[in-house]
């Protein structure tokens, strides 16, 4: 086999592996991100929205904070799913933020792509996050532990 054919095979295998990883990882809630500029003290940890110029109310029990952009097709699907969950689960609000218009908040929270969904507790602290479009069951599962307390 020629060198060009080996390069082609390697490129196809790399693309396949990357695609499989993205299919596995997209929409899964896992971990949190350390908010830059915030104190590490858990008892006085501020809302992730503290200092942001936003007019959004937090949910009584939880908030689904979605970062999206204008030309993002998965963002529209995520919007529908999160709004549906917020409509079904009492005390949960859905807040959508245009990442392009709030770059300071995007940088501070470590948002690297859209859609990104953050699950916030009643005080606005990040509990978990997902990049990519989550499924409804994944969102409900992420809220289950928070709402059980």
UniProtKB/TrEMBL annotation:
Pfam families, sorted: Thioredoxin (PF00085)
InterPro entries membership: Thioredoxin-like_sf, Thioredoxin_domain
Domain of life of the organism encoding this protein: Bacteria
Span of domain Thioredoxin: 33-148
Stored PROSITE patterns: THIOREDOXIN_2 (PS51352)
Protein's UniProt name: Thioredoxin family protein
Organism the protein comes from: Nocardioides donggukensis
């Amino acid at each position: 086999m020629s060198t060009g054919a080996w390069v082609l095979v390697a490129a196809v295998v790399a693309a396949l592996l990357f695609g499989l990883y993205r299919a596995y990882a997209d929409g899964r809630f896992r971990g949190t991100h350390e908010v830059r500029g915030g104190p590490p003290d858990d008892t006085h940890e501020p809302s992730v929205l503290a200092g942001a110029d936003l007019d959004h109310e937090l949910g009584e029990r939880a908030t689904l904070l979605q970062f999206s952009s204008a030309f993002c097709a998965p963002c529209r699907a995520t919007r529908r799913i999160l709004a549906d969950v917020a409509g079904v689960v009492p005390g949960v609000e859905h807040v959508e933020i245009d990442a392009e218009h709030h770059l300071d908040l995007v940088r501070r929270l470590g948002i690297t792509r859209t859609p990104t969904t953050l699950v916030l507790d009643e005080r606005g602290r990040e509990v978990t996050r997902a990049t990519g479009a989550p499924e409804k069951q994944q969102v409900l599962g992420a809220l289950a532990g928070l709402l059980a307390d």
